[in-house]
Every structure is written in structure tokens, then in C-alpha cells.
Design goal:
The chain is an all-alpha fold. Helix content is 85%, strand content 0%. This is UPF0056 membrane protein.
Length: 207
Amino acid sequence: MDTFSRSLLLLFVLLNPFIMSVYLMELVKGLTFSYFARQLIRAGMISFTIFLLFAWTGDAVFENVMQVRFSSFLIFGGITFLIAGIRLILGVGPPIQALRPESGQVSAAIAMPFMVGPGTISASVVIGSRLNFPMAASAIGLALLFSIAAILLIKIFHDFFRNRNEPLVQRYSEIAGRVTALFVGSFAVEMIFTGIERWLTRLQGVG
């Protein structure tokens, strides 16, 4: 698999549209398809802009603007993502409160924290370091496009089976989300290890 495909797949897995559809199930139930699609696309555009910023600036934005080491962000983000992944796999319950139709600023609420988080931001930085900017933007854009398409497809299935077998659709989404949570947990461990390695390398350089 080439670098572009690996980068696209990395962000798609971390976006995890199956689990996201579980978090957004109240919106899936309560909103019309057209309105839900518009809000989801707007959330995707917000996320795309944020991801592009981190892909372009890399870890410099952390050290020069936020005054924190990128290794610290990797370790903290990895721990947060690992806890979320473990909860999802064990079925303890969603680590984030589900979004409801009456929530204000639906598109912004979908973008953060459901799309933009420690894992996806770190992935954007990694993608920006792997690929030139136009290719990185394409990989990020396609990953978001595929994720939005998958969620809208789940919405279509949900509306079709609403009066027939709605629990089956929701159960399928939960199972698919738990399977992909295995990869999310694995990436979380990689984030922690990478952060520790960068921190140790920096200490050795100072020493």
C-alpha cells in the first residue's frame, strides 16, 4: 500500500464513521436526511480546515504557538484515545455525551469533538509530514468524504428500516464500531510510544 493510501486509511479509521453514527444516533433519528446531510457537510468543512492547518504547520504550531511539546500532545492524546477505545470495545458506553437535535450549532458540535480530536489532529500532522501539501489535502479531503458518505448511508438504512428493524441497524453500527475501535486503540498505543520516543530523543539531545 502506498503512502497516500495509508495516510487516507489512517484518518478514515480514526474518524470511525460507525462509532460516530452511534454518537449521532439522536440526530439520525430526529432530523430529515437533507438537513442532517447539510449539517454533516458543514462539520466536514470545519474539520477539513482545521486538519489542513495542522498538516501544513506540523508540530511547529504546538511548540511555537501553543508553547507545548508535540510529544506531550501525543502522549496525552494517546492516553485519551486509548481509554475511549477500551470503553468502546468493552461496551461500557460512549465516552462522549450523545448529540441531540435540539443542540445549538449542530455542525460545529459535530465537528468538535466527534471529528476533530487528539487522534485526528495527530494523524493530520503525520499526513503532512508524509506527503506534500496538495497530496496531504487530497488524502484528508477524501477521508472526510468517505466518512461523511458512510454516515449518510447509515442514515438512509436507518430511515428505511425505522419501522421494521431499527435495533438491528443500530446494533450493526455498534459492532462495526467496536471492530474499528481495535485499530483506534492500536494507534493510540503508537501515539504514546511515539511521544515517549520523541521526548527521550529530545532529552538525549539536551544532555
